[in-house]
Specification:
- The complex is a heterodimer of chains A (409) and B (202).
- Chain A has 409 residues and is mainly alpha-helical.
- Chain A folds into 2 domains: 157 residues, no CATH class; 213 residues, no CATH class.
- Chain A contains 13 helices and 4 strands.
- Chain A has a 4-stranded mixed sheet with strand order 3-2-1-4, sandwiched between helices.
- In chain A, strand 2 and strand 3 form a beta hairpin.
- The radius of gyration of chain A is 28 Å and the shape is elongated.
- In chain A, 40% of the residues are buried.
- Chain B has a single domain, classed as P-loop containing nucleotide triphosphate hydrolases (Rossmann fold, 3-Layer(aba) Sandwich), CATH 3.40.50.
- Chain B is 38% helix and 13% strand.
- A 5-stranded mixed sheet of chain B has the order 2-3-4-1-5, with helices on both faces.
- In chain B, strand 3, helix 6 and strand 4 form a beta-alpha-beta unit.
- The longest helix of chain B is centred in the C-terminal third of the chain and has 16 residues.
- Classes of the chains: A mainly alpha (409), B alpha/beta (202).
- Chains A and B meet through helix 1, helix 2, helix 5, helix 6 and helix 7 of A and helix 1, helix 3 and helix 5 of B.
Chain lengths: 409, 202
């Protein structure tokens, strides 16, 4: 019997009128994918000039002191899948700057509470799928039960007392199928444009879309049972507004407010790091005075460097890890709260799938942190333990180490 | 978490039902063989009518055609698809329902305009295609067009000739084409022989 219901509902869904509606949705999706492609391509194009500029900067250094002060920059490269999530991701692009002093900056404003400030928009493929899918799902579900006489007729013909449940299940399958086809066509559009975004993690997107569509269809079907028509429409509007706009905003806001309270501001944090660095500077000056670099450093300088590594750099590391863990904790809190609602779960998972989500931020942060302390090690080794080679400063970055490739999680 | 939410909503859908819960009803004393093969049951009130209808709904040898206040729109769907759907839901043969529909005046399903009465004809044709001995109609012609009633009078006459027993339930006495000459006492319900060609039940 369910097969018959499914077949008939498919005929009702895939009519000429509905094909036109699906076509219009696809045209809208193509527009936003096109926008995502242009963003992605501009980042891809910036890779080469970025690396060339960094190499050129290194080649112009006369000795390691300036290299250490100027530091190195790292570029975050999103995965092709980010095209689908260009507006709803946690950030657009990231660059990290690390030096041998206190600096570990990630696009300046991102490190700290401001990571949680941007709510993420809906003007991309995944956002449109959410806005349109939930709207259609709500109406499609509502249409199952709004006409009780039709249900009575089906119940009478079939002898089953549960026609609404069967129709709802059939519609869940069909709407998901329709959106799966739209997603498949969008993927095909990307392939035609020479971008292969096929990724196992797209299955995660399908699962998230499934739970959103299923929730909205079921909610719409339950609302259809309410007797007063005016109440039905009011509740439909309230459900849509709450789940699409208000709750995602509230979850984001709650985490941001907590982060504002619990995490130091970036200027406060940098000031603290600067004070630690200046303490080392003062201590070195008082102990050694000035020292001309270029040759192997004298033992008392080496001893000072070693003590700096053990005292001040340890403090810098500790502070940096505190910030890192603080951000990580807020990310976990956001992800946990987001999992309570279908739309926030969708948004949260998609952020991560986009490769421009919180998890990738954390990974990039960690990478920049590790690179910073590798760079410090490199700098100390070259500056204090070796004479300056005639060929000039040797670059710290090998190959594509200055590029960090984001991955879907 | 969302899975719980979805499961809860689907459970609510499972619990809701458009029809009132079926109540155990007593067997009404209706003897088709003794009275007539086609009977009109004038019921005292809606509850009595409902009880008789519910009784036959659970009867294995009866087909019950209910009053459906139709407000349906099947945009972009042909009548043939609806017939096929109803037949598969009811588990009856489509050919039989098509035969009944042709008696009801519907011969071309491809060009049929899906009016509310046309959908009701499809519904009734599918129901009677179940081939049971008793056919119970719950005030089915009330407020319908003359054409609709006339079409059904042919079908019901055919079914009567085929040896089926027909019971028409209503709470209103409809005017016969010839005046009644005696008072009719009604306690719970009263039975009258019925000739669809001679009375109107609209």
């Amino acid at each position: 019997m369910f097969k018959s219901v499914l077949k008939f509902e498919a005929k009702m869904l895939f009519t000429r009128r509905n094909f036109i509606i699906l076509g219009a949705i696809f045209a809208l999706l193509v527009f936003f994918i096109w926008d995502g492609i242009s963003d992605y391509n501009s980042i891809q194009k910036s890779k080469k000039p970025f690396q060339e500029m960094e190499k050129d900067k290194v080649s112009r250094h006369i000795h390691y002191t300036f290299y250490g002060i100027r530091g190195v920059r790292l570029l975050f490269i999103p995965s092709p899948i980010s095209i689908f999530f260009s507006d709803s991701a946690a950030f657009d692009g990231m660059t990290a700057h690390v030096d041998t002093a206190e600096n570990l900056n990630i696009s300046n404003s991102f490190k700290g509470k401001d990571l949680f400030a941007g709510a993420g928009g809906y003007m991309d493929f995944s956002g449109i799928m959410l806005l349109v899918g939930s709207f259609l799902g709500l109406l499609y579900g509502y249409d199952v039960t709004r006409n009780s006489e039709y249900l009575k007729l089906l119940s009478d013909i079939s002898g089953t007392r549960k026609p609404a449940l069967m129709i709802t299940l059939a519609r869940i399958i069909l709407l998901n199928l329709a959106f799966l086809i739209l997603s498949g066509l969008s993927l095909l559009f990307l392939l035609i444009n020479g971008i292969n975004a096929i990724n196992i993690f797209l299955f995660g997107f399908v699962v998230m879309l499934f739970q959103v569509l299923t929730s909205f269809i079921s909610a719409g079907a339950v609302v259809g049972y309410i007797k007063k028509k005016r109440s039905q429409l009011t509740i439909l509007v309230v459900i849509y507004f709450l789940l699409i706009l208000f709750i995602p905003w509230l979850v984001q806001k709650a985490v941001y407010m907590e982060a504002k309270k619990g995490l130091k501001s970036i200027s406060e944090f940098n000031h603290e790091m600067y004070k630690i660095m200046m303490a080392l500077e003062t201590r070195s000056f008082k102990t050694i005075g000035t020292w001309k670099s270029g040759d192997i450093a004298p033992d008392k300088v080496k001893a000072m460097v070693k003590s700096g590594q053990e005292i001040e750099y340890k403090k810098l590391k500790k502070n940096e890890m505190e910030m890192y863990n603080g951000i990580k904790k807020r990310i976990r809190a956001y992800q946990l709260i987001a999992s309570f609602f279908p739309t926030t779960a969708y948004l949260s998972v998609n952020k991560e799938l986009s490769s421009k989500g919180f998890e990738n931020f954390i990974k990039f942060y960690r990478y920049a942190y590790d690179m910073k302390y590798k760079f410090i090690g490199f700098y100390i080794e070259r500056k204090f333990y070796r004479p300056l080679p005639k060929s000039g400063v040797e670059p710290f970055i090998k190959g594509n180490e200055d590029l960090f490739y984001g991955q879907s999680l | 978490m969302t899975l719980f939410y979805i499961a809860g909503l689907l459970f609510l859908l499972y619990r809701f039902h458009p029809n009132e819960p079926e109540k155990a009803t007593k067997k009404p004393i209706i003897d088709f063989k003794k009275d007539s093969s086609t009977l009109f049951a004038l019921c005292e009130n809606g509850q009595v009518k409902g009880n008789i209808f519910h009784y036959y709904q659970t009867h294995q040898n009866a087909v019950c055609i209910d009053t459906i206040k139709m407000n349906l729109r099947f945009t972009g769907i042909r009548a043939g698809a609806i017939l096929k759907y109803f037949c598969s839901l009811a588990g009856v043969k489509q050919e039989k329902a098509i035969n009944h529909l042709s008696t009801l005046g519907i011969t071309d399903l491809n060009t049929l305009n899906l009016s509310q009465e046309a959908i009701l004809k499809i519904y009734a044709a599918v129901k009677v295609a179940a081939d049971r001995d008793i056919i119970v109609l719950n005030d089915f012609f009330k407020m319908k067009s003359r054409e609709f009633e006339n079409a059904f009078s042919f079908l019901l006459s055919d079914l009567e000739q085929a040896g089926k027993w027909i019971l028409y339930l209503s709470c209103e006495m409809h005017y016969p084409k010839v005046n009644a000459d005696k008072k009719i006492p009604v306690e719970n319900f009263a039975l009258f022989p019925l000739n669809f060609q001679k009375v109107t039940l609209r």
